[in-house]
Amino acid sequence: MDIPVPWDAKGGDLIECENCAGVLFRLTGQGGRDALRIVQLVSCPFCEETIPVDDDTPEGTVIRHGGAEFTLTKEFGAFSLELAGGQRPGCVPATDAGKA
After folding, report:
1. By the 8 A CB rule, do 3 and 16 touch?
2. 63 part of a folded domain
3. Number of structural domains, the chain?
4. Taken in order 55, 56, 58, 63, is the CA torsion positive or negative?
5. Residue 47 exposure: Cα atoms within 13 Å on the Cβ side
6. Is residue 31 part of a domain?
7. CA angle at residue 78 from 77 to 83, to 5 degrees?
8. Burial letters 29-41, b for 16+ CB under 10 A, else e
9. Exposed (0-12), middle (13-18) or buried (19+): which is 81, by Cβ within 10 Å?
10. Are 68 and 88 in contact (CB under 8 A)?
11. Phi and psi of 30, rounded to 5°?
12. How large is the average pLDDT for residues 41-67?
C-alpha cells in the first residue's frame, strides 16, 4: 500500500496514514533511502496527553514529559508509562481532572 508523504516532509516528521485508522509513522532515513517507521501513541498517566513513541523503542527507556520522567513499559504489544520520579509540574491526575 502506498502512503502519501507530503512533499516538504523531512526526517523525524510524523506522518498520518489516511487509510490506516489513525496509525502514525515517522519519516526516517534508512540505508540512504526514506522509510516510514510505525509510531505508537502513549498516554501520560496524569494529563492524558498522547506522546509519540517509536515502535522499536526498548522497554525501560526513560521518557521526559512536562518536567517529569517516566519509564516506558511494554506488555502484550502495547506501551505504557510509569512514573519514574516526580509528578509533572502543574499536572492534574486524570482521576481528579473534573475537580480542578
Report:
1. no
2. yes
3. 1
4. negative
5. 12
6. yes
7. 135
8. eeeeeeebeebbe
9. buried
10. yes
11. -145, 110
12. 85
The band of 1, judged by pLDDT with boundaries at 50, 70 and 90, is: low
Q: Domain containing 79: what range?
A: 14-89
Residue found under cell 496509525: 23
Amino acid at 29: G
Q: Choose the weakest-confidence range: 12-16, 18-22, 59-63, 72-76.
A: 18-22
Please give the distance of CA 36 from its chain centroid, rounded to a whole number: 15
Which residue blocks in the chain are alpha helix, DSSP H?
A: none
Does residue 8 form part of some domain? no
Grid coordinates standing for 52? Answer: 509519540
* Cα distance between residue 41 and residue 30, in whole Å: 22
Is the CB of residue 88 less than 8 Å from the CB of residue 44?
A: yes
The pTM is what? 0.64
